[in-house]
Automatic annotation (TrEMBL):
Domain NAD(P)-binding: 9-195
One Pfam family recorded for the sequence: NAD_binding_10
Name the record gives this protein: NAD(P)-binding domain-containing protein
Domain of life: Bacteria
CDD domains: SDR_a5
Signal peptide coordinates: none
InterPro entries hit by this protein: NAD(P)-bd_dom, NAD(P)-bd_dom_sf
Species lineage: Bacteria, Bacillati, Cyanobacteriota, Cyanophyceae, Synechococcales
Length: 227
């Protein structure tokens, strides 16, 4: 039996894939999107809430009754350099606060490889990696059952993914490899089903030559190497 899962940023390229993968697993999904955002047609019949993250009442109502939240919100590169601060730090904090108010305990955050690094080209877009790390830290300190997924460079490739392996590592182990958004979405759903992922930052990249393993298997290896 599935869970009732809220997905914020569900109109984004990663977010709508999270929604699709959640539905495949038999979950009930509630999609949280901006007022003017558009969804793919195959998600148009889902429970949909259009809101601003700054609207506490609307956010609380959207999360009420949900078992978990996947935060797939993220600032997009633009001329507005305040976006990363508003979305990746403040926006994450607003959603965490709402989860605590309404009793949503389980949260998965989609962040980014190299979060927290200052010397990185992505920081030309409003210090985006710095703000992403502040969002991660807010979640780590929240008291919720959290998992952070840090994907590498994202692409929209959909072909041959069933044969592609994922490299799962702990924090600050990877730098520049890539991963399709579809596989990131699957990682989020897998994390929700993997209790040992709670309290972990998990970096993910992929390669067709990698052996396919589960997140649970990977975490056992990560723990063994750390002990």
């Amino acid at each position: 039996m599935g869970i009732k899962l809220a997905i914020s940023g569900a109109s984004g390229k990663t977010g709508y894939r999270v929604a699709e993968e959640a539905l495949k697993e038999g979950n009930q999904v509630r999609l949280l999107i901006r007022p003017n955002s558009h969804l793919p047609d195959n998600l148009s019949q889902c429970d949909l809430r259009r809101l601003s993250l700054a609207d506490e009442t609307a956010l609380d109502e959207a999360l009420e009754g949900c078992d978990a939240l996947v935060l797939a919100t993220g600032a997009r590169p633009s001329a507005d350099l305040t976006g990363p601060a508003r979305v990746d730090a403040l926006g994450v904090r607003q959603q965490i606060a709402s989860c605590k108010r309404v009793g949503v305990k389980r949260v998965v955050l989609v962040s980014s490889l190299c979060a927290g690094r200052w010397l990185h080209p992505l920081n030309l877009f409003g210090l985006i990696l710095v703000w992403k790390r502040l969002g991660e830290q807010a979640l780590e300190q929240s008291g919720l059952d959290w998992t952070v997924i840090r994907p590498g460079g994202l692409n929209d490739r959909e072909e041959n993914l069933e044969k592609e392996g994922i490299l799962f590592t702990g924090a600050d182990c990877q730098e520049d490899a890539r991963i399709p958004r579809r596989l990131v979405a699957r990682c989020c759903i897998e994390a929700l089903k993997t209790p040992s992922s709670i309290g972990r930052i998990i970096e993910v990249t992929s390669d067709p030559d990698l052996k396919r393993i589960t997140l649970q298997q990977a975490l056992k290896t990560i723990n063994a190497l750390a002990s």
